[in-house]
């Protein structure tokens, strides 16, 4: 995956998220739930290859460490996933940290943590993207400002083979805008799906 294009997507998404208040510091966001303090910065800061205990301490803290399967206010510690929410309620931003059988972080997913800077995805652009296209071909069609990274995975960690990056590319603003999803695995398009694009 091109560092320049991924950096552009990450930068515009992070800027938009901060502007929208999704990444406010612990409890500082206006109207934030006092018991929920997970932030977009914490999500981004946890590197792949981190052990489960360290991830938990990073996003929750040593003082909030119930056994696996217990609730801890803003995070849930499931069998193979730590799931953290930024607030209570429906359709709130959250992040998933997924672990392999050795308890090592190999996948991260998020919903609503990032917002595209300038959503402009269209059906015509979507239709131009074909499975098997290289990253460069994909980047030439899909505007980075329309997209955010909603998933990244290293299923064969510590090897980088099979590296997957998932993009969510919106057509407009709003809670559920027309959208396209793309997966790039080892630098090639391996999955595409769209809903309601025109």
From TrEMBL:
TM spans (from-to): none
UniProt keyword annotations, A-Z: Signal
UniProt keyword annotation of Signal present: yes
Domain of life: Bacteria
Endpoints of the signal sequence: 1-27
Name of the molecule in the record: BLIP family protein
Organism lineage: Bacteria, Bacillati, Actinomycetota, Actinomycetes, Kitasatosporales
């Amino acid at each position: 995956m091109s560092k320049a294009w991924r950096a552009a997507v990450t930068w515009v998404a992070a800027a938009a998220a901060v502007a929208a208040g999704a990444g406010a510091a612990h409890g500082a966001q206006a109207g934030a739930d006092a018991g929920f303090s997970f932030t977009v910065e914490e999500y981004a800061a946890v590197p792949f290859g981190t052990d489960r205990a360290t991830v938990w301490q990073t996003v929750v803290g040593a003082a909030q460490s119930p056994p696996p399967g217990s609730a801890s206010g803003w995070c849930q510690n499931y069998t193979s996933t730590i799931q953290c929410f930024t607030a209570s309620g429906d359709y709130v931003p959250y992040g998933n940290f997924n672990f392999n059988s050795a308890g090592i972080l190999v996948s991260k997913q998020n919903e609503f943590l990032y917002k595209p800077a300038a959503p402009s995805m269209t059906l015509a652009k979507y239709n131009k993207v074909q499975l098997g296209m290289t990253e460069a071909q994909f980047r030439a069609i899909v505007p980075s400002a329309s997209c955010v990274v909603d998933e990244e995975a290293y299923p064969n960690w510590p090897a980088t083979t099979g590296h997957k990056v998932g993009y969510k590319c919106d057509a407009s603003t709003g809670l559920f805008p027309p959208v396209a999803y793309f997966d790039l695995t080892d630098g090639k398009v391996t999955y595409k799906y769209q809903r309601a694009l025109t």
